Automatic annotation (TrEMBL):
SUPFAM superfamilies: L28p-like. The keyword Repeat does not apply. Pfam families: Ribosomal_L31 (PF01197). The gene is rpmE2. This is Large ribosomal subunit protein bL31B. HAMAP family: Ribosomal_bL31_2. Belongs to the bacterial ribosomal protein bL31 family. Type B subfamily. Keywords: Ribonucleoprotein, Ribosomal protein. GO terms for cellular component: ribosome. It comes from Streptomyces anulatus. The keyword Ribonucleoprotein applies. Part of the 50S ribosomal subunit.
């Protein structure tokens, strides 16, 4: 890697306020705000809108769309097109 052109890569806390969930990882993102972590050290904190603790796919609250019914209704309405 070329020296001096890459952003610094260090520990950052990502916090999901909606789910009251935070995790420590490494990232190139930075922040002026800091938070005291469980290990007693202070790390920059980045607030996120959605994390694995609040995303419907990961929490099991995702809705399954009836795509098969939509395709069948479309084919009934407009017929099946010819393939070329």
């Amino acid at each position: 890697m070329k020296p001096g052109i890459h952003p610094s890569y260090g520990p950052v806390v990502f916090r999901d306020k909606a789910a009251d969930f935070a995790f420590l990882t490494r990232s190139t993102l930075t922040s002026d705000r800091t938070v005291a972590w469980e290990d007693g050290n202070t790390y920059p904190v980045v607030d996120v809108e959605i994390s694995s603790a609040s995303h419907p796919f990961y929490t099991g609250t995702a809705r399954v769309l009836d795509t098969a019914g939509r395709v069948e209704r479309f084919e009934r309405r407009y017929g099946r097109g010819e393939t070329r």
